[in-house]
Amino acid sequence: MGMAAVLAGCGSGSGGSGGDGGTITAYVYGDDAVKVQQAAVDTFNKTSKVKVKLVKIPGTDYVNKLRSAMGSPNAPDVFFNWGGGSIKPYVDANQLVDLTSTIQSDATLKDGFLPSIMTAGSIDGKLYGVPMRGMQPVMLFFNKALFAKYNLQAPKTWEDLQKDITTFKANGVTPFALGAADKWPELMWLEYLLDRIGGPEVFKKIQSGDSSAWGDPAVLKTAQTVKQLVDEGAFGKNFNAVDYGNGGAPTLLNKGKAAMHLMGSWEYSTQLGKAPDFAKKDLGWTAFPTVAGGTGDAADVVGNPTNYWSINARTKHKDTAIAFLKAMASTDYTKALTANGDIPTTSNASATLDSSPNPEFAHYQYDLVQKAPSFTLSWDQALEAQYATPLLTEISKLFSGSSTPQQFVDAMKAVK
After folding, report:
1. Is residue 416 exposed (0-12), middle (13-18) or buried (19+ Cβ within 10 Å)?
2. Which is deepest, 238, 243, 333, 350, by most CB within 10 Å?
């Protein structure tokens, strides 16, 4: 019966407030931060005749399960995404509600979020999503107790980083945790290295469809630097067997087995959920170091500007879905994100940062993003799947040593 109801609503496009009751399904990336979205759903359902059902999907399965569901009759009404390339196939297939006019004509949505964040996930100037989590720059996290033990400072330059690697290795500590079994954590190293070495323009060319830009000398230098890190043992010997999604890499950091971890800012809320004492006492953070001779700005960041809710064009409860998205701009939701260690993208966020579990981290992250000349969207989200999937495969081969830096460049130039 439920399937029949969804099929009956397919293609109607008119939506409705659903006075007769009913349910809309919302797919969300299942991690430690999902409790904030669950609380928002619980609050919304107290007053809405049409209820929201939150479906939590493990992070490593999310993209594939969403793709399968969107091609089936029981697709979600609302779903979590990263904007950009992550939703382009759905936009091309006319599967998403164009929210541009809705947002521009509604004060809550138009004025409730930072404009730069709203446009960051757009496609061809059209808005298909509303921010629903915090800013997510990639940062270098570190174990403060280990750095103090060996009288080291967080690295500001590549020379500093090499000194840290040497010292930690000499004392039996893995310099960097890396969840290489999931592949995407490796991507962050290339994103930052290419930015620091060649500036953000190189990837902008790639993102615009110029595959020859993979042949830029800065890309080869980036791949060579990765190989150098692997060869000198910066990630230990077993990083290909370590995951992130099930907590492998974060645990290495909080147990003192690894000294540093390059990860999105959600690492803070992950550690808060898995090792609260460590998160509050010994978790440090800093910007990615500079690379000698590089042309990129030291203040540039990479990562995900935020995550978004998008609406399936086939939903039979469009008005309810929009009402749910508007709840993301509420003060209560902003406070809940802040309390979970997130830095909201709402226009009223700055007033809530002092109530964060760690105001120092909150303000640092907010300032990092505010002052960044460039914020490059994670490559696997900026590029469509036909490019992103082989990219992750080739990066994995580079890290594992089964391909050379030049072979990585050649392989990516050949992807069409």
Report:
1. exposed
2. 333
What tokens appear for 365 in the block?
Answer: 């992250």
Contact status, residue 138 vs residue 112, Cβ threshold 8 Å: no
Please tell me the pTM assigned to this model.
0.77
Angstrom distance (rounded) from CA 322 to CA 290: 43
Q: Which pLDDT value is given to residue 2? A: 35
What's domain 2-135+305-347's architecture?
3-Layer(aba) Sandwich (3.40)
> Topology of 136-303+377-414 in CATH?
D-Maltodextrin-Binding Protein; domain 2 (3.40.190)
Sequence-distant (6+) residues with CB within 8 A of 41 are 26, 52, 53, 54, 324
- In sequence order, the β-bridge partners of residue 139 are 263
| 373, 141 contact by CB (below 8 A) | no
Q: pLDDT at position 340, please?
A: 86
d(CA 10, CA 4): 10
Q: How high is the pLDDT of residue 19? A: 43
The list of the chain residues with pLDDT below 70 reads: 1-20
Cα separation, 121 vs 117, in Å, equals 7
- Residue ranges of the alpha helices (H) in 292-374? 318-326, 331-339, 359-371
In the chain, domain spans? 2-135+305-347, 136-303+377-414
